[in-house]
Design a protein that fits this description.
TIM Barrel; 11 strands; binds zinc ion; three-stranded parallel sheet; alpha/beta; single chain; six-stranded parallel sheet
């Protein structure tokens, strides 16, 4: 049964729980999510405890390890070590072919639908803004299917059509790694997001198809040229689901003030990423990071995007986040910090959920 809705629900722009779940390699992974396995940042009990009312759920296909014996935990540790210097520049993995990407992408999307089916009405895959509003009001977890990187989409866009029919409502042309559709930013600090070529011709076709279907195009992970390619072509609001302010943390993954202006002009939105390496002025990946750093990004984004253009994009289950939040159950600590910082209740509602639902409604249609 749905639980009592939170007084101030959080609707969040990005999480990687489907990746966390598929990596467990077990058949009944839905029950791990629904009953709560206590691992990573997200499962249903902790989301309900923290007021996490819904969000975009990413399908991200990981690159195969070049070392087949490597333990994923070792790879994560290596990555953390690589990102712990005063500056870093990580090489991007090789592109994935359609044939490599599609089975995993379909399996991850399938996990979300299996969660919905097994949830007994506690979780819904939403296709309209009205459905999200209804879920938030009733305490049903409102999920939106999102693809982070378009590797699973064929060049004739037949799979895009099929996935739209299934419920896909948001797609990023790239997760950093190059695709047939464009180029993303390598993880570099300090660094400008202007790192090379933007969208390919096929990537421009993808934008046109998304506009036709009224599917959201996610700009996070695109480089600056790709961002401007989308800005020029797309008739939808510009949305970066999980990116912060480059003026405060000079990583390639963050948005320059010029990019923020374009987002504002399009009535779009940026979701504040909880990843400490995209928050801290020193770019470090460490949970020992105060929430004041997040509030500084929120202030900067509000100044440049206006109160209607800022929301949350946690990167739960995909990043090292501040220990004061720790996991979804710790979201009330962030809410408390935002209120203590002086944000009034109207602004709190906008930041926590209304802005996301508004931009999705403007993108998808009412
Ligand atoms: Zn991401």
């Amino acid at each position: 049964m749905p639980q009592t809705p939170a007084a101030l629900p959080i609707f969040d722009g990005h999480n990687d729980v489907l990746l966390r779940l598929i990596k467990k390699g077990v058949a009944d992974v839905e029950s791990h999510f629904l009953d709560g396995d206590g691992e990573g940042h997200l499962d249903l009990p902790r989301m309900q405890a923290g007021g996490f009312g819904g969000g975009l759920f990413a399908v991200f296909v990981p690159s195969p390890s070049t070392d087949p014996d490597a333990d994923p935990a070792d790879r994560k540790a290596k990555r953390r070590e690589a990102m712990s210097g005063e500056s870093y520049d990580l090489p991007l993995p090789a592109p994935l072919s359609l044939g490599e990407a599609q089975p995993t992408a379909l399996a991850m999307a399938g996990i979300l639908f299996k969660i919905e089916r097994a949830s007994g009405g506690r979780v819904k895959v939403c296709r309209t803004a009205a459905e999200i509003r209804d879920c938030l009001a009733k305490g049903v977890l409102a999920t939106v299917l999102h693809f982070e990187g378009a590797e699973a989409i064929d060049p004739e866009f037949r799979s895009l059509e099929l996935l739209y029919q299934a419920g896909l409502r948001s797609i990023g042309p790239v997760w950093s790694r190059p695709t047939a559709f464009g180029h993303g930013v390598p993880f570099r600090f300090p660094g400008s997001p202007d790192t090379g070529d933007g969208l390919t011709d096929l990537g421009k076709d993808l934008v046109r198809h998304c506009n036709r279907l009224r599917m959201m195009i996610d700009l996070s992970h695109l480089n600056e040229k790709g961002f401007w390619d989308v800005a020029e072509l797309s008739d939808a609001p510009l949305v970066a689901s999980h990116s912060n302010a480059h003026a405060l943390c000079a990583t390639t993954r963050n948005l320059t003030d010029d990019q923020l202006k374009a987002i504002r002009d399009s009535k779009g939105l940026a979701g504040v990423n909880f990843a400490t390496s995209f928050l801290r002025a020193d770019g470090q990946m460490t949970a020992d990071t105060g929430l004041d750093v997040m509030l500084r990004h929120m202030d900067h984004l509000i100044e440049h995007l206006g109160e209607d253009g800022v929301a949350l994009g946690s990167d739960f289950d995909g990043a090292t986040i501040p220990s004061e939040i720790k996991d979804a159950a710790g979201l009330p600590n962030l809410v408390t910090a935002m209120r203590a910082h002086g944000y009034g209740e109207t602004l709190m509602r906008k930041l926590c959920w209304e802005n996301w639902v508004g931009v999705l409604e403007r993108t998808w249609g009412g």
